[in-house]
Amino acid sequence: MALTTAVFAVFGTASALANPKGEYAVFAQCPTKNAELSACLVARAESGSVQFGTETVPVVFTQTLQGGFIENEEGFEKFVGAANGETLSKTPQKVPGGLSGLVNCTEIKEPKAKKACEEVFENKLTGVYATLELAGPASSIGIDEAALFEENGTALSLPIKVKIENPLLGSTCYLGSESAPIVTELSSGTSGSLKGKFGTLGARAEGEIAVITDNTLVNNTVSVPGAKGCGGPLFEAVLDPIVNARLGIPAGKGKNKVTLNGTLEQTSARAAREHE
Q1: pLDDT of the residue at 121
Q2: Cα 73 from Cα 154, distance rounded (Å)
Q3: Beta bridge partners of 262
Q4: pLDDT at position 193
Q5: pTM of the full predicted structure?
Q6: Cβ neighbours for 123, distance < 8 A, ≥ 6 positions apart
Q7: Which pLDDT score, from 0 to 100, does residue 14 have?
Q8: What is the bridge-based pairing of β-strands 182-186 and 156-165?
Q9: Which backbone phi and psi does 123 adopt, to 5 degrees?
């Protein structure tokens, strides 16, 4: 069931009078050119944390998922990516401790890799950032609003890869890949030891825009593979095992935790088109 339908049932239908540069601006990247589109969606993870193995990365900077979906008569929802291609924002989050807690140069025996490591530390370039990226087309995202409402089952399934970046590790150090994504099934209900929540349902734009605040999606069942490509072709054979040892990966089900707190906004494709 589309979220906007539920809002209309609660607040009543209303004519769309909002200025497209005002309240509807949040849906600027909704793929309204798709004639089959049912609704526009923007979900923002504003806090929380991602624990892969033994490392926990807090969500400090807002991560945004945007696009829309097509709903068929059976209620199945097919995700459609953002108009500008930025369906899942690439938002770096700082890894606590950086390389100071991740890599020990004395453990590196290969001379060139060891020298590169020492140069990074000498210049105090020890900060490390982790970025969640979509691994696959937008259509590979799964969305189930009934599960979201009922706080039961998978509300959002995200195929992701995690980029671990630093001058020493380079720009090719990843957990997961396009061919082998980390499929994270997020629930507003229970997942392993974690408990999510639907949050509070409200509306704006005279009931045309549904808003869920204080929403929490969780996952405690995802498996995380080891890192690959750290340091690029020259050093990955040396750095991959060190990064994996420090992060405690690969890590199986129950050893990884994802908690995302935030806000979801949704409107009908019709309303979005009317306010373009």
Answers
A1: 64
A2: 20
A3: 45, 215
A4: 96
A5: 0.85
A6: none
A7: 39
A8: antiparallel
A9: -95, 5
Residue 134: how many other CB atoms lie within 10 Å: 21
Q: Please compute Rg for the chain using Cα positions.
A: 21
Task: Using the structure block, give the residue that is written with the tokens 């590169």.
Answer: 116
Report the relative pairing of strands 174-175 and 194-195 from DSSP bridges. Answer: unpaired
List the chain residues with pLDDT less than 50. Answer: 1, 5-20
Three-class DSSP labels, the chain: CCHHHHHHHHHCCCCCCCCCCCHHHHHCCCCCCCCCCCEEEEEEEEEEEEEECCEEEECCCCEEEEEEEEECCCCCEEEEECCCCCCECCCCEECCCHHHHCCCHHHCCCHHHHHHHHHHHHCCCCCCEEEEEECCCHHHCEECHHHHHHCCCCCEEEEEEEEEEECCCECCCEECCCCCCEEEEEECCEECCEECECCEEEEECCCCEEEEEEEEEEECCCCECCEECCCHHHHHHHHHHHHHHHHCCCECCCCCEEEEEEEEEEEEHHHHHHCC
Name 201's bridge partners: 212
What is the phi/psi pair of residue 93, to 5°? -115, 135
Q: Residue 234: what pLDDT?
A: 85
25 phi, psi to nearest 5 deg: -60, -25
Query: Residue with structure tokens 């994270």?
Result: 184
- What does the domain layout of the chain look like in residue ranges? 3-274
Task: Count the neighbouring beta carbons within 10 Å of the beta carbon of residue 85.
Answer: 8
In a 13 Å sphere around the CA of 153, the CA atoms on its Cβ side amount to 10
Buried/exposed code over 243-267 (b: 16+ C-beta within 10 A; e: otherwise): bbbbbebebeeebbbbbbbbbbbbb
